[in-house]
Amino acid sequence: MLSPELCFLRHASKLSLPHAAQLGLEFCGAYSLSAGETRSARKRAPITNTAFLKSYVENCTGERGIAEARRALRYVEDGSESPRETMVALLLDLPARLGGCGDPPPKMNYAIPLPKNARKATGRRSLRCDLLWPEEKLAIEYDSDLHHTGSERIASDATRRTVLTHLGFEVVTVANRHMHNTAEFEVVARRVAHRLDRRFRPDRSWRANHIELRRQLLDPP
Fold first, then answer.
1. 129 near 113, Cβ under 8 Å?
2. Closest to 100 measured CA to CA, from 195, 18, 187, 181
3. What kind and span of H or E run contains 128?
4. Parallel, antiparallel, or unpaired for β 138-143 and 126-133?
5. Quick check: 213 and 91 in contact, CB under 8 A?
6. Roughly what angle, to the nearest 10 degrees, separates helices 204-218 and 83-93?
7. CA dihedral sign of residues 75, 81, 85, 87
8. Residues 47-93: pLDDT tens digits?
9. How far apart are CA 146 and CA 89, in angstroms?
10. Greatest Cα pair distance in the chain
11. Minimal CA–CA distance to 132: which of 99, 97, 108?
């Protein structure tokens, strides 16, 4: 049986950069995709992590796929909990020439410690954000149509947002529609770039590449 690290290396030589990075995020994340046409996701513990992947690739001198694996690993982080979180991260941090936004990779489901008064409001010692740039205090929350409904969940999300805002974080919400609409995703991308103090100037070429990148990510390997 192949180790996750060897499996990643071998696949990296055959996959496009977006698909190789997508696979790496899945291996280092808390979900897996089933085989077949439906490609449904199920929760599971990570089967490896970025440190193991990077170490393995660096120690496999002469093996096929090393260059491709190294490139893909620039965009792989630990902690993704769903295919859509992975997709949002890659749409933001892959290079602009591929239709991404060229942003630095975010932390995935990163825990923010809470002060005592915020713990009382949330009943938690920390809050996790789907995507986070801690130094810039920017968080992205993926608003799943499935998991963010119901009055109790809506109230909980509102409390989380209020606490994060009080702590100085800007929270940007990405919904399912952003994954299918270039113009709507562009609004998110511009806000993220502004907060990260980066230039983002999409043109017709970028939009065409973005649509192709989105198509690839919606059809994982």
1. no
2. 18
3. strand 126-133
4. antiparallel
5. yes
6. 160
7. positive
8. 999 999 999 999 988 888 999 999 999 999 999 999 999 999 999 99
9. 20
10. 56
11. 108
CA distances from residue 193 to 4, 74, 108, 153, 199 in whole angstroms, order as listed: 34, 19, 18, 29, 6
The two tokens of residue 128 are 């996790």
**Bridge partners, 142 (sequence order):** 174
Hey, how many other C-beta atoms are within 10 angstroms of the C-beta on 36? 7
Radius of gyration of the chain (CA): 18
| Mean pLDDT calculated for residue range 141-159 | 68
Secondary-structure breakdown of the chain: helix, strand, coil percentages, each rounded to the nearest 5: 50, 15, 35
Lowest-confidence range among 83-87, 107-111, 139-143, 217-221? 217-221
The token pair at 186 is 């562009």
**Dihedrals phi, psi of 19, to nearest 5 degrees:** -70, -35
Q: Which residue type, as a one-letter code, is found at position 179?
A: M
